[in-house]
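Running this now, will post back.
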Amino acid sequence: MTPQDCAVIFDVDGVLLELTATEEDVFFGAFQPWCAPSTLSRDWNSYRIRNDDNIVDEIMARLGLPPQLKTRIVADYHARIGALLANGSLLSHAIPGAADLLATLDGKTRLGIATANFREAARLRLLAAGLWQGVSGLAQGADGGGHKHEILARALHSLKLPRSRIVYVGDNVNDLEAGLRNGVHFIGFSTQQERLEHLAAAGATYLSGHHAATRILIENLLNA
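Update: finished.
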């Protein structure tokens, strides 16, 4: 297993970082000038496409906002989350074992992310948690929209590797679908047993409830 012949790509929320209610408030707070952010659904599955870029579009359409406001809304979100992380008012919480997992894999395989967060928001949050450097070389976010399988496909586009030499680690059924559609190995990760059971019922073969097990699964899949 060397960086030249394999890659491991991670979802962010639920795999590398905890998504807190406060961070959700910052995202929806970008719509404060036009509506009460508390009226916007925090159920990510209630949106047509579970992707920050598409969710902004959907909320804007619902509020009747002109498309040219999107740049302002997204920039405001990034500015606010960056400022809050910088002054310590907002903390970015790493999933237990995530830092050790990335450190162990560093130098053995290419590392990256494919997330439904805006790339800049993911960068700021991962940077605050000390996890950005390891995955920065192959980082694909929600920018441009699309389902998770489309985001992962964009991340894979620059990789000149057989799909059998790539692992994707995610915590949702849409992550499993992304792995299957793109023909890569998939590891379903969650610290919640109920979510692991849901992933298993959806067809996930490889499951992990802690990142020591994730490392073993990755090494077994890529050394095979």
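The first strand starts at residue 7 and ends at 10. More later if anyone needs it.
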